[in-house]
Amino acid sequence: MDKNDWLQVLTFTPKDLVKLLVSALIIVIVTKVQLFNDRLSALLIALPFTSVIAMMWMQAEKQSPERIANHSSGTFWFVLPSLPMFLVLPWMLRHGWNFWPALAVCCLVTAGLFWGMVAILRHFGIDLMPK
Fold it and tell me: What's the domain range around 76?
């Protein structure tokens, strides 16, 4: 990325503020629902709200169908290596691990699985992290 690309990333517009507020609102609602029903909050967060909202913003910003398609397929491939975390973290917590060390280990394992997924898929012609 050159300097102009970084300026685009770091410059916020009123539309970006709306995006931020909508995304934050979803997180707040899910955490409030969790106070009385942890299964319902898990269901809500499992729904691909953030991906759907991101694709809606991409469409509103007139991004090409190809970029939206790349986002969608990339999301699919990157979700797969994150799934084990949702089994390993509860196992660790139920077996005496403190939250922060367990989360840290799970994040490291997930990052390793991401890079493994990238390497494996390259062999099949799917390049998630173009050079």
Answer: 65-131
